[in-house]
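A brief tutorial aside. Many learners find it easier to grasp structure tokens once they have seen a single protein encoded end to end. The record that follows does exactly this for TPR repeat. Read the sequence first, then the structure, and try to relate runs of similar tokens to stretches of the chain.
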Amino acid sequence: RIQPNDEDIWINLGVAYEGLGKYEDAIVAYQKAIGIRPNYEKAWFNLGVNYEWLDKYEEAIIAYQKAIEIKPGYENAWINLGVVYKGLGKYNDAITAYQKAIEINPNFEQAWANLGVTYDDLGKYEDAIVAYQRAIEIRPNYEKAWVNLGVVYKSLGKYDDAIAAYQKAIGIKPDFEQAWINLGVTYDDLNNYEEAIVAYQKAIEFNSANKELLLDIGWLYFIQGKSQSAKPYFEQSIELSHSQMNLGHVYLTEGDAQKAMEFYQQSLHNIEDKAEFFEGFQSDFPYLEKQGINREAFDEIVTQLKQQSVNDELPD
């Protein structure tokens, strides 16, 4: 039975509700604890956390600020306050909060990493690099900081440094899907398609449901003239309208114009923005031309598809 004047029991009850995902009930419990002991910084902190989970950011800010008012050296409250500020787009306030957390605990790697993310969002890439490097210096196996460092390097066009950072993250956590994807994107940007494919395939090993990635692998094969290697990837992601278009390309290069048209029509039907469809379709011609498709035949397909688009918009 709950003792009504025991703040610790109310705190424990709040934690139990949190574990069950009952955040509103947790809030009530923490408020009870605060009612008994108004300067209970842990209760204010927990209250802020639960407000965050309910997307009640202004209430979360008030709760974290109250926790900090009671205990100015409360580093976790400072970092959480920074997270809320950043989520609201208040980047300078977020930076100040993270810096306060770091001032309290210079080895607080999460605060350094969060500071790096905020600087990155502001385009302050050199500052972001310094922050991520500091986080990594404190915790060398901090795989997320390595990935984020790679993202900044890529933004600066430092592709070799980006690749090294992503590889470092993968060395720490071999099943880090996002690191493999980022590595693949970087290789793709360098036109190193085979390395990009290998990286994307590794990412697929850890998340076979990533249809966009299957589409990307297929496309990298296709633009190299490897239609047969591309085909199964488009088939596995056929629910995507661009995979439907690309599968049409494969059939066209195989000489099956009728089958190609079926997939083109399917893609056209599923892409709401018809201008986007035709822009993408036209931009693909150079890759088709390299695989033996002449301009006249291609333009005839475009004409037929445009006519279908007009017909589809006519009232029944």
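Self-check: Residues 295-313 form the longest helix (19 residues). If you spotted this yourself, you are ready for the next section.
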